[in-house]
Design a protein that fits this description.
Elements lengths: L4 E4 L7 E13 L3 E13 L18 H12 L1
Antiparallel strand pairs: 1-2, 2-3
C-alpha cells in the first residue's frame, strides 16, 4: 500500500475566515483509488491564543457538528 497524501483547499495562515477541506488520498488493494474529505473552517486574526474545535467523532451525533458550524458562522 502506498502512503496517503494530504492536501488542503484553503491557506491556513492567511488573514480572515475561510471554509474548506482536507483531502486524504489513498490507494488500497480492496478499494482502488479513494479520497476522504475532512471539512474544516479557519479564522486567522493575528498572533495570540489559539483554539481547536472538533466535532463529529461519532457519525450519528450531529449536535456538535452544528454547534461548531454556528460558532464559525458567528466569528
Amino acid at each position: 500500500m502506498m502512503p496517503s497524501t494530504v492536501s488542503c483547499s484553503i491557506d491556513l495562515q492567511a488573514e480572515g475566515k475561510r471554509i474548506g477541506h482536507l483531502r486524504i488520498n489513498k490507494i488500497t488493494n480492496t478499494a482502488g483509488w479513494a479520497s476522504t474529505f475532512i471539512h474544516l473552517g479557519c479564522v486567522v486574526n493575528g498572533k495570540g491564543p489559539t483554539v481547536l474545535v472538533l466535532a463529529g467523532n461519532h457519525g450519528d451525533e450531529y449536535a456538535g457538528q452544528l454547534a461548531a458550524l454556528r460558532l464559525l458562522q458567528e466569528l
